[in-house]
Specification:
Helix content is 62%, strand content 0%. By secondary structure, the chain is mostly helical. Pfam families: DUF3969.
């Protein structure tokens, strides 16, 4: 099985990553994913570098997401609050993104 997602415009990429991040944060909050999973999928410095033309707040959010593991290791009592804060920040950023016409992110969606 292969999945190909094609995003051509910065607004699409930012919106997609915010939506993906909300699912990732919920999965971490509920214990459905480990931090190792989250880092393998999304929370790597490479993602913030991908966003070089994005809204500065989104770039900073993804840079900070890479540090959640440090909070888990150094101040585990603050982890749940940090995850909830990042979820709130992501929702606020998503709401603030320009409204674009919905696009099919999956190639050959209707084939």
């Amino acid at each position: 099985m292969s999945l190909h997602i094609e995003l051509k415009h910065s607004d699409e990429v930012q919106k997609f990553l915010c939506i993906l991040n909300l699912g990732m944060l919920d999965s971490l909050l509920e214990g459905a994913l480990t931090f190792e999973d989250a880092y393998a999928y999304l929370y790597r410095p490479y993602v913030a570098q991908l966003l070089n033309n994005a809204n500065r707040e989104i770039i900073e959010l993804f840079e900070e997401l890479c540090m959640l593991e440090d909070i888990r290791d150094l101040a585990p009592e603050k982890l749940q609050d940090a995850l909830k804060l990042k979820k709130r920040e992501t929702l606020d950023l998503l709401k603030g993104l320009s409204s674009i016409s919905p696009k099919y992110w999956l190639n050959k969606f209707d084939d």
